[in-house]
Amino acid sequence: MKRVWLWAPFAIFITLIAVFAAGLINPSDRVVASGLVGRAVPQFALPGALDPAAGLSNQSFGDGKPKLLNVFASWCIPCVAEAPALMQLKNQGAEVVGIAVHDRPDALQKFLSENGNPYSAIGDDPQSRTQIAFGSAGVPETFVVDGSGIIRHQHVGIITPDDVPIIMAKLRAVE
Amino acid sequence: MKRILIAILLGMATPMGAFSQTNYNNVQLPDPEQERKAVELMETIRCVVCQGQSITGSNADLAADMRGMIRERIARGEKPEDIRKWLIQNYGEWVSFKPQMGGNSAPLWLLPLLALAGGVYLARSRFKNRRG
Fold it and tell me: Do B48 and A138 touch (CB under 8 A)?
């Protein structure tokens, strides 16, 4: 019995090495998930990024129609790559609203005329306050919000053409 | 002479006025006690962009905005721990460098106690052997 116990520290050591090696070979997911999935859209009110009157607030949600909320910026290169997929979603009947982070009207206008404008409203978030309230850690990020204003899903990073049917299905599911 | 003086004063006033409107991302709060509280909290909030750093040491825009947000909320009289709870709600336990007891982090707190208990047990049997 004592013999077996003598080997215990060695066994623990080997186990630790295996755990560390596994972590190095296969690093864990670095995606920061929002804690707001399953909860109501946080309270916010943003002026419109292009037309100050056409802003976005938590009141814009919960009108019975599910929406996609896209957090983006004109300076964000991946957002350019994402633009066609957002257009596809819009053409398939999704209502897309946007929050432009750290943006300027002229730069945003240029971005939209070059990449298309799928947004029915864009809120201007110059100091990321609303982005933080949504638990979003970067751009682009997209939230699926159901008709009663509850956040149902968060998509971190670019929506690729392959993601379009998945996002569309999520939207239909919460209709 | 008076006009020139007024022009100079106006010239000085404009940037000062603009300055007072800037955010608190990289500007200390006027009240040192509030600033101390804000920095104490910021040092234990993880930057969600760079992930290995606190927001005090990060140059990411989002981290700077979080610093500004924390300073504004402290200046409004919010408690640092309430702001921490709000951030944990938004980004998960992970965003705080001060792990709370419970659920996932329970082993982290219990392991040292278990190790200590094990050590005491081992030491005790050793002392017993020596006496015997």
Answer: yes
